[in-house]
Design goal:
This protein is α+β, with helices and mostly antiparallel strands and 244 residues long. The protein has nine helices and seven strands, in the order H-E-E-H-E-E-E-H-H-E-H-E-H-H-H-H. About 5% of the residues have low confidence.
């Protein structure tokens, strides 16, 4: 699988449903070639913005849809599991290779790494999230010949850590102005997001939902899990509903 960085780039490329092309040719179908992403060109992209960004990053290092192996299984992302994995093989019965990406807190327990490294991964992810980045953990593994690639739980385990991807998803330029107008009109603005709590907090400061000039209370920002665990009586007892 090459160096960890080449494996990282390959996973960004393969565990990905977006299509990106420079407009000079059709998207690669023969995946044995590797080209360098050209400057300029008539770029076109189809897919989720996060996946497009990851695909473009890999392309900048010369990775195209470049793998001669065939996709045999995809375990799609959904909000309950917060990760995606794909399984490729070379047309033989085995071995197959798993490529996975997902939320750090979901991926870390699935890594076949020692606790010291897991602690470092989590700390770096927290640092990136504190900068307002959306953070994904990237990993892969080889399946044994008797592993069932369609069994998601058994496929997404014992993964090799390859790296973290931090993506900046900026708020729309007009958001801060709209929040300010609401505040001037006496309207409280709350934000609900599936992002990491530190990512959400950073973005909330950026658009003015939170202010560094105000000392916010302990329940101003809450995770969905913590808020969901409150009873109706506990919610009623809050001084105010969380802003984020």
């Amino acid at each position: 699988s090459g160096t960890p960085f080449s494996a990282f780039l390959n996973t960004l490329n393969l565990c990905n449903n977006s299509t990106v092309t420079d407009g000079k040719k059709e998207p690669e179908t023969d995946t044995s070639s590797i080209t360098t992403a050209a400057e300029g060109g008539d770029w076109r992209a189809i897919g989720e913005p996060t996946e497009i960004a990851l695909k473009v990053f890999a392309m900048r290092y010369g990775i195209t849809k470049g793998n001669s192996d065939q996709l045999i299984v995809e375990h799609p992302f959904d909000s309950s599991c917060k990760l995606m994995s794909v399984v490729y093989n070379n047309g033989l019965d085995c071995p197959s290779r798993v490529y996975a990406k997902g939320a750090v807190e979901v991926m870390i327990p699935k890594l076949d790494e020692d606790e010291s490294l897991k602690t470092k991964i989590y700390a770096k992810a927290e640092e990136l999230a504190g900068e307002g980045l959306r953070v994904l953990c990237i990993a892969d593994r080889t399946l044994a010949c008797d592993d069932d690639a369609t069994d998601r739980a058994k496929t997404e385990m014992n993964l090799r850590f390859l790296g973290l991807a931090g993506l900046y998803d900026p708020p729309r330029p007009e958001t801060a102005g709209a929040v300010q107008q609401c505040h001037e009109a006496g309207i409280a603005v709350h934000m609900v997001t599936g992002d990491h709590i530190k990512t959400a907090t950073s973005i909330a400061y950026e658009v003015g939902i939170l202010s560094r000039d105000i000392v916010h209370g302990p329940n101003t920002v809450m995770s969905a899990a913590d808020f969901g665990n409150l009873t109706d009586e506990q919610v009623d007892a809050l001084e105010s509903i969380p802003l984020v």
